[in-house]
Specification:
Elements (H helix, E strand, L loop, with lengths): L1 H7 L2 H8 L2 E5 L3 H13 L3 E6 L23 H12 L4 E6 L9 H5 L3 E4 L4 H14 L3 E7 L2 E7 L17 E3 H5 L5 H15 L30 H4 L8 H7 L4 H18 L39 H21 L13 H17 L7 H8 L7 H19 L9 E3 L10 E3 L18 E6 L6 H11 L5 E5 L5 E3 L24 E6 L4 E9 L6 E4 L6 E2 L33 E2 L5 E2 L14 E3 L2
Parallel strand pairs: 1-2, 1-4, 2-3, 4-5, 7-19, 10-14
Antiparallel strand pairs: 5-6, 6-8, 8-9, 10-15, 11-12, 11-13, 13-14, 15-16, 17-18
Helix pairs in contact: 3-4, 3-15, 8-13, 12-13, 13-14
The structure holds adenosine-5'-triphosphate (ATP) and zinc ion.
Pfam families: ThiF, UAE_UbL, UBA_E1_SCCH
GO molecular function, one term: ATP binding
Main location: nucleus
Amino acid sequence: MVARVAGVLDEKLAEAIANSKILVVGAGGIGCEILKNLVLTGFPQIAIIDLDTIDVSNLNRQFLFHKEHVGKSKAQVAKDSALSFNPNVNIVAHHDSVISNDYGVSYFKQFNIVMNALDNRVARNHVNRMCLAANVPLIETGTAGYAGQVELIKKGLTQCYECQPKAPQKSFPGCTIRNTPSEPIHCIVWAKHLFNQLFGEEDPDQDVSPDTADPEAAGDAGASALTSEGTATGNVERKSTRAWASDTDYDPEKLFSKLFGDDIRYLLSMENLWKKRRPPTPLTWDNLPGKDNPPTQHTGLPDQRVWTVHECAQVFADSCKVLKADLKRRPDGDHLVWDKDEKSSMDFVTACANIRAHIFNIPLKSRFEIKSMAGNIIPAIATANAIVAGLAVLRAQTLLKGNIESCTSVYLRPKVNHRGQLFVPERTLTPPKPKCYVCAPKPEVALACNLKQLTLKDLNNVFKEGLNMQAPDATVEGKGLVVLSSEPGETDHNNEKTLEEIGLNDGCALLVDDFLQNYEVRVRLQQEDDEKSWRLVTDTDTPMLGPQEDKTNGSNGAKEPKPGPSRSKEESDSDMEIVEEDDGGVTTKAPKRRRTEKSDTVVELC
Ligand SMILES: Nc1ncnc2c1ncn2[C@@H]1O[C@H](COP(=O)(O)OP(=O)(O)OP(=O)(O)O)[C@@H](O)[C@H]1O
Ligand SMILES: [Zn+2]
């Protein structure tokens, strides 16, 4: 097959391919397809990096993997399978994260082209910066359901991955999640947070107990609860949920009574909350709806049947038992990581979300539906991945032929448009945004914050969450004074001090750099007395980046105001914002287009 393709390609291209070296980042849905295409086209030198192992759920579309490979390294198995198509290719497989010191600028420089087949912004941002630093062209790919896109990123010639603000992540106020859920997704987010509080990485921003600071409850927060049964038993005290659960040895009945009985009674005592809302109904373990009635007949798949509340409680008890045992098997201080494909984790979230939904009079959902919402899944479509991977490799060939100007972005549409097009190419390359805080010649950004309140620890978060840095170092411009060091321990003693206390004031500029990413940005401090958190302002016409509060699923996506029409992950991509021209090409006016991106659900603090 390879020989035949070699005969088809013109000589110049065949020679360029023969001398090329390609890096593929990600060996998932698109990565497997790209690797297969490269190997069959005769690309002789390929490196592939993927940090993950093969899951059963990958097998339906990641066709380089089979049942016997489950649990094995994606990169390694992808290499072995691809070699079976063409043993003459030199493939180097790395079972590793691309965000590692091992893959620095000099590593990237050895490649003619880097091809991204990733599923999260953190890694995409990182590879974007590495390719800019190494001045290597990057072909960025993505699909969302039936839609997809392929885009060339080349320093100085095109926009970079971070030139355009991303679609905002769907966010909910923390008090909605903790006190007044009104949609299934609120209960699902709460259940995922509960999982982390009990078994995962504890995060104070993921508190699941009633939020007494809810501004809506102002004044009456829990006043009458002080005399309630819950407080009498000590169950609603401000004690870590994990510590309390551990004291009860994760007794499901006690956990249930606190979470779905005492805490709900406490919420009821915040009377202001229920003046215009239907109040929740606390549950008791021994008297659960559905106990005496068998589940209704259901003809679909088991996962598509909605469980009764009684069944949910049983699943809650069973999954708690398994998760507790899993946690206990780990070394002290270690924790579980929520995974939609792990049975007990998914059972736990389904059961808890539905029990809470019942309490708040919200429709219950099937395990299947909750999995889709909790995992933020837009179904991955094998054919969309295959098409995008095919387009990506065609773009790689165009690049190797030296026709970089022809490497415009291509969009795969979910449906043919009125001109009968399924693939819509841009007419020209999209130039870099002059004030991009990543690819501008001298990147600069303003940090609006209250210097009297923002601590050094917060500043570190600003750089990591807002500027997508991995290991930031900051010095005061003109003074060279080190304010923040990525070296463990070096500036930790100042962590709790405010920026004002460490001598930073309005108008001061910091030079912030990330050695790993070869990236430096000048950050101007801007005092704002009313600012409770922080905002990064990139330039006058660019939206501001603010803090994010949830970092699940590896997506970092700083929370951004809507640049234009934006949709949540749950919404369809079928109306991608592409301005089509009469000649069949497209132009996109920043920031009209949305990248196909897996995003996460974010919870905002009240
Ligand atoms: N930092 C990283 N370094 C290397 N590989 C990464 C990194 N982040 C993500 N990946 C890989 O990128 C691939 C993306 O593929 P894909 O979108 O098909 O996701 P998946 O995890 O295989 O499937 P799904 O999320 O739909 O279950 C995954 O194999 C994932 O392991
Ligand atoms: Zn840029």
